[in-house]
Amino acid sequence: MSDTTQNGPMLAADGTPLKRSLARALRRQKMRALMLISPLLIFVLVTFIAPIADMLFRSVENQMVSETLPTTTQVLGEWDHSAGEPPAEPVYEALYYDLFIAAEAKEHTKLGTRLNYEYTGVSSLFRSTGRGLDDLGDDYLDELEEVDDRWGEGAFWYDLMTGTGSTDEDLVAAHAKRLEQLTGDKLSGDVGFAPSTEIAALLPKTTAAYADFAVYTALVDGDVVAEEDPWESVYVGLMTDLQTADVASYSGPEAEALQAAAEAAQGIEYIPLKTFFAEEDEDWLNVDIWATVQTYSSKYTSGYFLNAVDLQLTPDGIEARPENQQIYIMLFKRTMFMSLAITFSCIALGYPVAWLLANLPASKANLLMILVLLPFWTSLLVRTSAWKVMLQQQGVINDVLVWLGLVDDAARLVMINNQFGTIVAMTHILLPFMILPLYSVMQGIPPSYLRAAKSLGATNWTAFWRVYFPQSVPGIGAGSILVFILAIGYYITPEIVGGTTGTFISNRIAYHISSSLNWGLGAALGAILLAVVLLLYWAYDKIVGIDNVKLG
Predict the structure, then answer these.
(1) Which parts of 193-327 fold into alpha helices (H)?
(2) Which residue of 53, 62, 124, 283 lies most exposed, with the fewest beta carbons within 10 A?
(3) What are the residues facing 311 on neighbouring strands?
(4) pLDDT-derived band of residue 170, with 50, 70 and 90 as boundaries?
């Protein structure tokens, strides 16, 4: 055999190096294993990881203000709330056009609801103002039609705004993109309109308002722009532009009508938009409302997390919420305390039952195990409602206590709609989750260990405490983690039997998700609850060791 053959790499049967052939085989094996678990992996990602990620994002997401009022928030950034004066006219002008298209898209009420979380009363302010935005444009239209009837016709406006020469396609594209952000829909199609660069420079506010109208008419309503009468905001933009525009030298389409309108505008009362909003509602002059809009103009906010710990984000920085609104820290403490109380109650009640099941003959143990599992065959609402019937002042337990003479009929015990009722009902519901891990571990403890301890002189208590109990600790750990995590996130049972003092933080999360629709705050509360559970899990691992937790 030659030196080359002796010193070269070892080859497989097909002539490839053995090392490369082995690596290829390992890769194929890993790919087959990955293909086998891929359905489960995709299921976990879609149903577990993705919702948690979405929740975490919603707890900081704050794009509604900036997407609904893009121009307003940009101009408002230069305003100083500490001066104690409302913003200047340019801010109200930007607000009018932003709010007009938002009202057409039915998005202004959502913005009002969002800001209402931070400042009470803003929701009704946006709703009422949205209904009155047309009035100013209607008044201007009436004045213009006295000069020329064509000002109310869609074809006339289309010719005026299209003009001649080069057109500004980018302006229409920008307004289409803005409308997509506002509505959250993907808009496609041809608008069929682009303003002339000359008219866009001469009448900038009119052009912007007409572009909003054209984009919405073509892409949302599906109508032809030239055949539809323009929005009232277009007339407001025209009257604003005519206060300063020099149209005498304009020679494009409908130049004579535009020049006549400019001349007539000198005799038409022009109402500044700041005055218009003040007449609609005096709250538009409220500095605190504008400061709230300015504070929550950024795309991301820490406000939800601050609210979740009884703080608030204000224009002056982070402040504590009013004392009568500080409820979340108290609810977190109550949730932790009651979850621990339920866990310890389950240990105290479940340990003897699990020991009995593990040491009885198989026939009797199986019968008792059916009784342990029986609650799983009964609806959760039925079990909770049964406790409500039993624990109320005219319920079964109070009636028995009165019959036995242990309680006076005039002083029946209050055991429902409080923390006691929640602990009792949830202990009953979660008890099987403690018994099953304990029973599984205890069944694996050889009885000979106790006999050996007793043969060496140990009493029954010593044999139990020194020999049996340490071996059952892994079952206690598994059951405790299971019961505690289930308890800390429960909300149905506390809602039914907890009243005002026995509800958990999970009840507030459910309220914000389903009733108040403050998903950001609900997500922030859920994220904090998740962080607390992970922190406790980490602490348990450091103190006890997660490797010592066993299910049998």
Answers:
(1) 197-202, 204-219, 232-241, 255-265, 273-280, 287-295, 303-308
(2) 53
(3) 320
(4) very high
